[in-house]
Amino acid sequence: MNLIQSLRRQGQSVWLDGFERGWISQGELQHTIDDGVRGVLLTFEGLKLAIQGQEYDRDFSVLTRQAVNRTARSDYDYIVKRDLQLAADLLKQVHSQTQGREGYVQVDFPPHALLQAETAIAEAQKIWQEVGWQNLMLRIPATPIMLPVIEQLIGDRINVNATFVFSQRTYEQVFDVYLSGLERLIHQGESANDVVCFTSFSIGRLDAALHPLTSFGITQAEILYQHFQNFCQNARWKALRGRANPLRLVWDCTDIQPQDAWRYIQVLAFPGTAILLSKATLEMYQQVSLLPMSVIGSKRVEQMLTNFPLVAIPLDELVDRLVDEEMRRSLNAFDRLLDQIALKLDVQSP
Known about the structure:
It is built from 16 helices and eight strands. β3, α7 and β4 (136-141) form a beta-alpha-beta unit. An eight-stranded parallel barrel has the order 1-2-3-4-5-6-7-8, surrounded by nine helices. The radius of gyration is 20 Å and the shape is globular. The protein has helices spanning 3-9, 21-25, 28-35, 44-52, 57-66, 72-97, 117-131, 147-155, 168-187, 203-210, 216-231, 235-240, 262-265, 279-285, 298-307, 316-348, and strands spanning 13-17, 39-42, 104-108, 136-141, 160-163, 197-202, 248-252, 274-278. The chain is of the alpha/beta class. α4 (44-52) packs parallel to α16 (316-348), α8 (147-155) runs parallel beside α9 and α11 packs antiparallel against α15.
Protein backbone atom coordinates (compact mmCIF):
# COMPACT_ATOMS: atom_id res chain seq x y z
CA MET A 1 0.00 0.00 0.00
CA ASN A 2 1.43 3.40 -0.97
CA LEU A 3 0.95 6.78 0.66
CA ILE A 4 -2.08 7.90 -1.36
CA GLN A 5 -3.84 4.59 -0.78
CA SER A 6 -3.19 4.63 2.95
CA LEU A 7 -4.39 8.24 3.25
CA ARG A 8 -7.54 7.39 1.32
CA ARG A 9 -8.11 4.48 3.71
CA GLN A 10 -7.96 7.03 6.51
CA GLY A 11 -10.63 9.04 4.69
CA GLN A 12 -8.30 11.81 3.51
CA SER A 13 -7.91 13.11 -0.05
CA VAL A 14 -4.57 14.02 -1.64
CA TRP A 15 -4.35 17.11 -3.85
CA LEU A 16 -1.44 17.99 -6.11
CA ASP A 17 0.08 21.46 -5.99
CA GLY A 18 1.08 22.54 -9.47
CA PHE A 19 0.59 21.19 -12.96
CA GLU A 20 1.16 22.57 -16.43
CA ARG A 21 0.43 21.72 -20.04
CA GLY A 22 3.31 19.26 -20.32
CA TRP A 23 1.89 17.16 -17.50
CA ILE A 24 -1.43 17.04 -19.34
CA SER A 25 -0.17 16.40 -22.88
CA GLN A 26 2.37 13.74 -21.81
CA GLY A 27 -0.13 11.83 -19.67
CA GLU A 28 1.55 12.48 -16.31
CA LEU A 29 -1.49 14.21 -14.84
CA GLN A 30 -3.75 11.32 -15.88
CA HIS A 31 -1.29 8.88 -14.33
CA THR A 32 -1.30 10.88 -11.09
CA ILE A 33 -5.09 10.84 -11.02
CA ASP A 34 -5.10 7.09 -11.69
CA ASP A 35 -2.78 6.72 -8.68
CA GLY A 36 -5.42 8.34 -6.49
CA VAL A 37 -4.84 12.10 -6.49
CA ARG A 38 -8.26 13.74 -6.13
CA GLY A 39 -7.57 17.40 -6.95
CA VAL A 40 -5.01 19.68 -8.57
CA LEU A 41 -3.96 23.31 -8.28
CA LEU A 42 -2.68 25.55 -11.07
CA THR A 43 -0.03 27.88 -9.61
CA PHE A 44 1.44 31.15 -10.86
CA GLU A 45 5.00 30.01 -10.21
CA GLY A 46 4.57 26.64 -11.92
CA LEU A 47 3.01 28.27 -14.95
CA LYS A 48 5.81 30.84 -15.17
CA LEU A 49 8.48 28.14 -15.16
CA ALA A 50 6.65 26.17 -17.85
CA ILE A 51 6.26 29.25 -20.05
CA GLN A 52 10.01 29.86 -19.81
CA GLY A 53 10.38 26.63 -21.75
CA GLN A 54 8.49 25.66 -24.89
CA GLU A 55 5.35 24.03 -23.51
CA TYR A 56 3.12 26.97 -24.42
CA ASP A 57 4.81 28.12 -27.61
CA ARG A 58 2.02 26.65 -29.73
CA ASP A 59 -0.53 28.70 -27.75
CA PHE A 60 1.50 31.84 -28.29
CA SER A 61 1.73 31.08 -32.03
CA VAL A 62 -2.05 30.72 -32.21
CA LEU A 63 -2.51 33.98 -30.35
CA THR A 64 -0.04 35.72 -32.65
CA ARG A 65 -2.07 34.69 -35.69
CA GLN A 66 -5.53 35.30 -34.27
CA ALA A 67 -5.49 37.82 -31.46
CA VAL A 68 -5.83 41.56 -31.82
CA ASN A 69 -4.56 44.04 -29.23
CA ARG A 70 -2.82 41.32 -27.26
CA THR A 71 -1.55 41.93 -23.74
CA ALA A 72 0.24 39.72 -21.26
CA ARG A 73 -2.97 39.56 -19.26
CA SER A 74 -5.09 38.47 -22.23
CA ASP A 75 -2.54 35.77 -23.07
CA TYR A 76 -2.66 34.64 -19.44
CA ASP A 77 -6.45 34.37 -19.56
CA TYR A 78 -6.30 32.27 -22.73
CA ILE A 79 -3.67 29.86 -21.39
CA VAL A 80 -5.22 29.42 -17.95
CA LYS A 81 -8.69 28.85 -19.35
CA ARG A 82 -7.36 26.07 -21.58
CA ASP A 83 -5.32 24.45 -18.78
CA LEU A 84 -8.26 24.49 -16.39
CA GLN A 85 -10.57 22.98 -18.99
CA LEU A 86 -8.13 20.18 -19.85
CA ALA A 87 -7.45 19.31 -16.21
CA ALA A 88 -11.12 19.51 -15.26
CA ASP A 89 -11.92 17.14 -18.10
CA LEU A 90 -9.45 14.59 -16.72
CA LEU A 91 -10.93 14.92 -13.23
CA LYS A 92 -14.59 14.81 -14.24
CA GLN A 93 -14.87 11.07 -13.63
CA VAL A 94 -13.58 11.48 -10.08
CA HIS A 95 -16.02 14.34 -9.58
CA SER A 96 -18.89 12.21 -10.82
CA GLN A 97 -17.95 9.07 -8.88
CA THR A 98 -17.68 11.01 -5.60
CA GLN A 99 -20.97 12.91 -6.14
CA GLY A 100 -19.07 16.17 -6.30
CA ARG A 101 -17.02 15.76 -3.12
CA GLU A 102 -13.74 15.37 -5.02
CA GLY A 103 -12.22 15.91 -8.44
CA TYR A 104 -11.60 19.65 -8.48
CA VAL A 105 -9.13 21.76 -10.41
CA GLN A 106 -8.25 24.98 -8.63
CA VAL A 107 -6.76 28.31 -9.50
CA ASP A 108 -5.87 31.44 -7.53
CA PHE A 109 -7.48 34.74 -8.37
CA PRO A 110 -5.38 37.36 -10.15
CA PRO A 111 -4.44 39.27 -6.98
CA HIS A 112 -5.21 42.68 -8.49
CA ALA A 113 -8.88 41.62 -8.50
CA LEU A 114 -8.90 41.10 -4.73
CA LEU A 115 -8.84 44.74 -3.70
CA GLN A 116 -12.58 45.34 -4.13
CA ALA A 117 -15.53 43.01 -3.66
CA GLU A 118 -17.28 44.03 -6.88
CA THR A 119 -14.15 43.44 -8.96
CA ALA A 120 -13.59 40.03 -7.37
CA ILE A 121 -17.17 38.91 -7.99
CA ALA A 122 -16.99 39.99 -11.64
CA GLU A 123 -13.66 38.18 -12.08
CA ALA A 124 -15.05 35.02 -10.48
CA GLN A 125 -18.13 34.98 -12.66
CA LYS A 126 -15.98 35.52 -15.76
CA ILE A 127 -13.64 32.62 -14.96
CA TRP A 128 -16.53 30.34 -14.00
CA GLN A 129 -18.46 31.01 -17.19
CA GLU A 130 -15.47 30.84 -19.53
CA VAL A 131 -14.09 27.58 -18.15
CA GLY A 132 -17.55 26.06 -18.04
CA TRP A 133 -16.83 23.02 -15.85
CA GLN A 134 -18.66 22.28 -12.60
CA ASN A 135 -15.51 20.83 -11.03
CA LEU A 136 -13.69 24.15 -11.11
CA MET A 137 -12.84 25.70 -7.73
CA LEU A 138 -11.70 29.28 -7.17
CA ARG A 139 -9.22 30.03 -4.39
CA ILE A 140 -10.12 33.25 -2.60
CA PRO A 141 -8.38 34.70 0.49
CA ALA A 142 -10.58 34.80 3.58
CA THR A 143 -9.88 38.49 4.20
CA PRO A 144 -12.51 40.87 5.59
CA ILE A 145 -13.05 42.32 2.09
CA MET A 146 -13.42 38.89 0.52
CA LEU A 147 -15.69 37.20 3.08
CA PRO A 148 -18.86 38.75 1.56
CA VAL A 149 -17.53 37.70 -1.86
CA ILE A 150 -17.31 34.09 -0.70
CA GLU A 151 -20.91 34.27 0.51
CA GLN A 152 -22.03 35.73 -2.82
CA LEU A 153 -20.22 33.10 -4.87
CA ILE A 154 -21.62 30.23 -2.83
CA GLY A 155 -25.06 31.69 -3.42
CA ASP A 156 -24.21 31.75 -7.13
CA ARG A 157 -23.15 28.06 -6.99
CA ILE A 158 -19.48 28.81 -7.61
CA ASN A 159 -17.14 26.48 -5.71
CA VAL A 160 -14.69 28.21 -3.37
CA ASN A 161 -11.54 27.31 -1.49
CA ALA A 162 -11.09 29.97 1.19
CA THR A 163 -7.36 30.46 1.64
CA PHE A 164 -5.18 32.27 4.21
CA VAL A 165 -7.08 30.63 7.08
CA PHE A 166 -4.61 30.69 9.98
CA SER A 167 -6.88 30.80 13.03
CA GLN A 168 -10.07 29.52 14.57
CA ARG A 169 -11.59 33.00 14.24
CA THR A 170 -11.12 33.08 10.47
CA TYR A 171 -12.39 29.52 10.13
CA GLU A 172 -15.56 30.47 12.01
CA GLN A 173 -16.02 33.50 9.75
CA VAL A 174 -15.76 31.33 6.64
CA PHE A 175 -18.20 28.85 8.15
CA ASP A 176 -20.67 31.67 8.78
CA VAL A 177 -20.57 33.10 5.24
CA TYR A 178 -20.69 29.61 3.74
CA LEU A 179 -23.88 28.85 5.67
CA SER A 180 -25.33 32.23 4.66
CA GLY A 181 -24.71 31.44 0.99
CA LEU A 182 -26.31 28.02 1.35
CA GLU A 183 -29.28 29.44 3.25
CA ARG A 184 -29.85 31.94 0.47
CA LEU A 185 -30.17 29.10 -2.02
CA ILE A 186 -32.53 27.14 0.25
CA HIS A 187 -34.72 30.18 0.92
CA GLN A 188 -35.03 30.69 -2.84
CA GLY A 189 -36.28 27.12 -3.15
CA GLU A 190 -33.11 26.00 -4.92
CA SER A 191 -30.84 23.03 -4.36
CA ALA A 192 -27.67 23.63 -2.32
CA ASN A 193 -25.99 20.25 -2.68
CA ASP A 194 -24.12 21.06 -5.90
CA VAL A 195 -21.73 23.65 -4.48
CA VAL A 196 -18.73 23.06 -2.21
CA CYS A 197 -16.47 25.15 -0.03
CA PHE A 198 -13.11 24.27 1.50
CA THR A 199 -10.84 26.18 3.86
CA SER A 200 -7.07 25.99 3.42
CA PHE A 201 -4.75 26.16 6.41
CA SER A 202 -1.09 26.78 5.51
CA ILE A 203 0.73 24.94 8.27
CA GLY A 204 4.25 25.71 7.11
CA ARG A 205 3.61 29.45 6.97
CA LEU A 206 2.37 29.52 10.56
CA ASP A 207 5.28 27.44 11.83
CA ALA A 208 7.80 29.62 9.99
CA ALA A 209 6.25 32.77 11.47
CA LEU A 210 6.92 31.46 14.98
CA HIS A 211 9.63 28.82 14.93
CA PRO A 212 9.96 25.84 12.58
CA LEU A 213 10.53 23.44 15.47
CA THR A 214 7.49 24.35 17.57
CA SER A 215 4.99 22.31 15.49
CA PHE A 216 2.55 25.09 16.38
CA GLY A 217 0.95 24.66 12.98
CA ILE A 218 0.11 21.05 13.77
CA THR A 219 -1.38 22.13 17.07
CA GLN A 220 -3.59 24.69 15.37
CA ALA A 221 -4.58 22.14 12.72
CA GLU A 222 -5.64 19.67 15.40
CA ILE A 223 -7.74 22.34 17.11
CA LEU A 224 -9.32 23.44 13.82
CA TYR A 225 -10.25 19.85 13.09
CA GLN A 226 -12.00 19.57 16.44
CA HIS A 227 -13.94 22.73 15.59
CA PHE A 228 -14.82 21.15 12.24
CA GLN A 229 -16.29 18.22 14.15
CA ASN A 230 -18.09 20.50 16.61
CA PHE A 231 -19.67 22.52 13.83
CA CYS A 232 -21.55 19.40 12.81
CA GLN A 233 -23.69 20.11 15.89
CA ASN A 234 -24.33 23.72 14.87
CA ALA A 235 -28.08 24.44 14.71
CA ARG A 236 -27.82 26.26 11.37
CA TRP A 237 -25.86 23.39 9.86
CA LYS A 238 -28.29 20.79 11.23
CA ALA A 239 -31.08 22.61 9.38
CA LEU A 240 -29.12 22.14 6.14
CA ARG A 241 -27.79 18.63 6.78
CA GLY A 242 -28.58 16.29 3.93
CA ARG A 243 -29.16 19.23 1.60
CA ALA A 244 -25.64 20.68 1.46
CA ASN A 245 -21.97 19.71 1.60
CA PRO A 246 -19.95 20.29 4.79
CA LEU A 247 -17.23 22.92 4.96
CA ARG A 248 -14.06 20.84 4.64
CA LEU A 249 -10.48 21.51 5.70
CA VAL A 250 -7.39 21.41 3.50
CA TRP A 251 -3.94 21.06 5.07
CA ASP A 252 -1.65 23.08 2.80
CA CYS A 253 1.83 21.56 3.16
CA THR A 254 3.32 23.08 0.02
CA ASP A 255 5.67 25.41 1.90
CA ILE A 256 7.23 22.53 3.83
CA GLN A 257 10.40 20.98 2.44
CA PRO A 258 9.87 17.38 1.32
CA GLN A 259 12.38 16.04 3.84
CA ASP A 260 10.40 17.70 6.66
CA ALA A 261 6.92 16.87 5.42
CA TRP A 262 6.55 13.39 6.86
CA ARG A 263 5.98 14.54 10.44
CA TYR A 264 3.08 16.64 9.18
CA ILE A 265 1.60 14.02 6.87
CA GLN A 266 1.44 11.27 9.46
CA VAL A 267 -0.42 13.29 12.10
CA LEU A 268 -2.86 15.15 9.83
CA ALA A 269 -4.59 12.21 8.17
CA PHE A 270 -8.00 13.22 9.50
CA PRO A 271 -11.13 11.74 7.88
CA GLY A 272 -13.03 14.16 5.68
CA THR A 273 -10.07 16.48 5.08
CA ALA A 274 -7.69 16.98 2.15
CA ILE A 275 -3.93 17.48 2.10
CA LEU A 276 -2.20 19.58 -0.56
CA LEU A 277 1.29 18.35 -1.39
CA SER A 278 3.96 19.48 -3.81
CA LYS A 279 5.13 17.18 -6.61
CA ALA A 280 8.47 16.71 -4.88
CA THR A 281 6.86 15.69 -1.59
CA LEU A 282 4.40 13.36 -3.27
CA GLU A 283 7.19 11.69 -5.23
CA MET A 284 9.44 11.32 -2.17
CA TYR A 285 6.80 9.49 -0.12
CA GLN A 286 4.79 7.90 -2.90
CA GLN A 287 5.81 4.35 -1.94
CA VAL A 288 5.63 4.90 1.81
CA SER A 289 2.72 3.39 3.70
CA LEU A 290 1.14 5.51 6.43
CA LEU A 291 0.65 4.14 9.94
CA PRO A 292 -2.55 5.45 11.56
CA MET A 293 -1.48 7.97 14.18
CA SER A 294 -4.04 10.78 14.23
CA VAL A 295 -6.67 10.25 16.90
CA ILE A 296 -8.16 13.44 18.30
CA GLY A 297 -10.19 14.07 21.40
CA SER A 298 -10.78 16.71 24.05
CA LYS A 299 -8.07 15.35 26.35
CA ARG A 300 -5.51 15.48 23.56
CA VAL A 301 -6.39 19.07 22.75
CA GLU A 302 -6.17 20.01 26.42
CA GLN A 303 -2.72 18.43 26.53
CA MET A 304 -1.64 20.34 23.43
CA LEU A 305 -2.82 23.60 24.94
CA THR A 306 -0.69 22.86 27.99
CA ASN A 307 2.36 21.96 25.93
CA PHE A 308 1.95 24.95 23.59
CA PRO A 309 0.81 27.92 25.71
CA LEU A 310 1.20 30.19 22.67
CA VAL A 311 -2.19 28.86 21.50
CA ALA A 312 -3.86 30.81 24.30
CA ILE A 313 -2.30 34.06 23.08
CA PRO A 314 -4.50 36.12 20.70
CA LEU A 315 -3.25 35.50 17.19
CA ASP A 316 -4.92 38.44 15.46
CA GLU A 317 -1.72 40.42 14.98
CA LEU A 318 0.20 37.39 13.72
CA VAL A 319 -2.61 36.37 11.39
CA ASP A 320 -2.89 39.88 9.93
CA ARG A 321 0.84 39.90 9.24
CA LEU A 322 0.72 36.47 7.62
CA VAL A 323 -2.20 37.47 5.40
CA ASP A 324 -0.36 40.62 4.30
CA GLU A 325 2.71 38.54 3.48
CA GLU A 326 0.68 36.01 1.52
CA MET A 327 -1.04 38.75 -0.46
CA ARG A 328 2.32 40.28 -1.36
CA ARG A 329 3.73 36.90 -2.33
CA SER A 330 0.78 36.21 -4.59
CA LEU A 331 0.98 39.64 -6.18
CA ASN A 332 4.71 39.28 -6.84
CA ALA A 333 4.28 35.78 -8.28
CA PHE A 334 1.51 36.96 -10.60
CA ASP A 335 3.51 39.98 -11.77
CA ARG A 336 6.53 37.76 -12.51
CA LEU A 337 4.26 35.46 -14.49
CA LEU A 338 2.93 38.35 -16.56
CA ASP A 339 6.49 39.56 -17.13
CA GLN A 340 7.42 36.13 -18.47
CA ILE A 341 4.41 36.12 -20.80
CA ALA A 342 5.35 39.61 -21.98
CA LEU A 343 8.81 38.33 -22.93
CA LYS A 344 7.20 35.66 -25.12
CA LEU A 345 4.89 38.26 -26.60
CA ASP A 346 7.86 40.50 -27.49
CA VAL A 347 9.79 37.62 -29.07
CA GLN A 348 6.87 36.64 -31.27
CA SER A 349 5.84 40.14 -32.26
CA PRO A 350 6.50 41.03 -35.94
